[in-house]
Amino acid sequence: MSSKPKLAVQALQASYGDVQVLWDISLEVFPGEIVCIVGSNGAGKSTFLRCASGLIVPRGGSFTIDGKDMSRAGPAAILQSGVAHVPEGRRLFQAMSVRDNLLMGAYLRDDKTEVLRDLEKIYEIFPILADRRNQSGGTLSGGEQQMCAIGRGIMGRPELLMIDELSLGLAPRAVELLTDALRRINKAGVAILLIEQDVMNALELADRAYVFDRGRVVKSGISADIAKDPAVREAYMGAL
Questions:
Q1: Which of 122, 179, 227, 233 could form a disulfide with 151 if both were Cys (CB 3.0 to 4.6 A apart)?
Q2: CB neighbours of 106 closer than 8 A, spacing ≥ 6?
Q3: pLDDT tens-digit profile of 219-234?
Q4: What separation in angstroms does the CA of 198 have from each of 189, 195, 203?
Q5: DSSP secondary structure string, 132-160?
Q6: What is the C-alpha separation between 29 and 229, in angstroms, rounded?
């Protein structure tokens, strides 16, 4: 693992109008690792990813990508810096084909031959998308839509892939397939920052974890250690 973080966040604050949602969030993601953010609904997890992808301008604090301050950068600049965001709810273009949805992830690229090669790699990771390539995105199951959303993110050739709510509303088998795919993507060299409602699954998948509560980081550390923490187990797993 590199000694320099891909993403480094310092004392980040964010708000919607007068309502402050994030308070002094500090977090790092290093190349090649998987990091998860867990916490209850309304803890600020999705807002954090929106800040880190340029959809929301922070109220205070800062974040860097490869050491460069990107706190005021827009989504296109952040994608060009190697960070892609898979939003909550997948957000596919419902009327467009699976293939065209995937190609939308490469809209900033002009290396057309490499784009087509990457498309074939997505089909290798998610064979069902190859079978469904000509179907419209809106006809896919929830799990298939999530595969397509992740594939679309990878088409930007990110070094860090941020995923908001991997398993929300999905069947266990779909979650298992997605988790296996993320391990494969990570082994290929892509760091992953994951928000996941299934806390145990997230902690098993990730190397390190951050626990958000009411817009603040209240715990952080090695995922295995966080999983053993009695307070975490009681709050998010229903057992001491």
A1: 122
A2: 115, 118, 155, 156, 157
A3: 999 999 999 988 888 8
A4: 24, 9, 9
A5: TTTSBGGGS-HHHHHHHHHHHHHTT--SE
A6: 22
> In degrees, to the nearest 5, what angle opens at C-alpha 131 toward C-alphas 185 and 122?
20
Asked whether the CA dihedral 197, 203, 206, 207 is positive or negative, the reply is positive
Which sign does the torsion angle of CA 82, 84, 193, 126 carry?
negative
The domain 7-237 is classified under which CATH number: 3.30.70.60, 3.40.50.150, 3.40.50.720, 3.40.50.300?
Answer: 3.40.50.300
Residue by residue, DSSP assigns 89-132 as T----TTSBHHHHHHHTTTT---HHHHHHHHHHHHHH-HHHHHT
Average pLDDT on 102-124 reads 92
Three-class secondary structure of residue 193 per DSSP: strand
Side chain identity at residue 124, one-letter code: E
Dig out the tokens for 12 from the structure.
């980040």
* Predicted confidence band of residue 90 (pLDDT cuts 50, 70, 90): low
8 neighbors 64 (Cβ within 8 angstroms): yes
